[in-house]
Amino acid sequence: MKDFLACGGRCTSVLPIVRKGGGLPVGSLFLIEEDEYGTYAKIMLQYFMAEGVTTAQPLLIGSKDVKTSQLVSDIPAVITDTTSINQPSNSDEQMKIAWRYQNMKVIDTSPTGGQVFGHFYDLTKKIEKEVIENADITQWYDDSCPEKNNSFNNATYSNLLKYIQETLENGQYSISETPTKRQVLRIAIHCLGSRLWCSDSEDDSCQDLLKFLYYFRALLRYSYAVGVITVPTQCFDNSNVIAQRIEHISDVAVRLESFAGSQKETNPLFKDYHGLLHLRKMLALNTIAPHNPESRDLVFKLRRKKFVIEVLHLPPELSDTTQREQDETIPQFGCSSLPDKNLLDF
């Protein structure tokens, strides 16, 4: 059945967190609330697109802020040699300095518990042009001025919905169609609801965004397709209210909080990370209760070649009991010549 199919993809280790076993169910909508500058949300979207190209799945990319040709050219290249990535560390190696910690349990910072679902990608390398040319990629880009129609205050939403619907019909992705080869369409929409999507008033802009998400989710429910969108919620004055409403419409929702320009950037607890990842809504399709991960305290960091999500652990030097235990001594009297006595002395 269509409801039990899952669309793979690492999405930087997020999918195994929000759904046990990993993958997005076909017909689901994944929401990424962008960070302050949208840098890390764009990287997560690139992972989603890269997995589609690597697995030879059709891809539809839509954007109004950035040319879709630029988004396609920025797709990272897949890492074919994963021996160094999957190579386990030598746990039998003895510690020469901290020998007393040798037999202690090693903390697994991976939120997936070492589970691998999808491929690894190198952010320093771009995908080859030949691979892009052979891939089934459909692009939608609109830089026209916003106009009003019968459905939306900004007709750009209507144009994108119409384009998505035509792509689903032409590719026979509907659940009522019986194509010779069944495929799952990946739909990636970048920076939906940004300033370029705004209408004359913020109320109209919010109304258009919510209406589009309702229509878009309805199309996904009756199609062999999955959707991942990034929304800059900080563009709205009542960002908390808008975020709650779009999270309610989506099936999975995560929010990225970047440390750039905030006090957390200089906090020693977060010195090795670039931001927090908040699980706003867990996937609850085809299940009685949503998946409950072992830890919700997630952080992310951007390395030279990859984007990593880890579980936040309190370092030893920042623990609640940082003061070493010392033996209490009996205070001396001013004129006393007695030696120091410990409490255990008689």
Automatic annotation (TrEMBL):
Which residues, by range, are in coiled-coil regions? none
Query: Which controlled-vocabulary keywords does the entry list?
Result: Cytoplasm, Nucleus, tRNA processing
Biological process (GO) annotations held by this record are: tRNA wobble uridine modification
**What Pfam families is this protein classified in?**
PAXNEB (PF05625)
Which cellular component, as a GO term, is one annotated location? elongator holoenzyme complex
Q: Is Cytoplasm set as a keyword in this record?
A: yes
Q: Does the keyword Disulfide bond apply?
A: no
- Write down the InterPro entries for this protein, in alphabetical order: Elongator_complex_protein_4, P-loop_NTPase
From the Swiss-Prot or TrEMBL record, state where the protein is found.
Cytoplasm; Nucleus
Pathway(s) annotated for this protein in UniProt? tRNA modification; 5-methoxycarbonylmethyl-2-thiouridine-tRNA biosynthesis
Q: Which PANTHER family match?
A: ELONGATOR COMPLEX PROTEIN 4, PAX6 NEIGHBOR PROTEIN PAXNEB
Family (UniProt): Belongs to the ELP4 family.
State what protein this is by name: Elongator complex protein 4
Which organism does this sequence originate in? Tetragonisca angustula
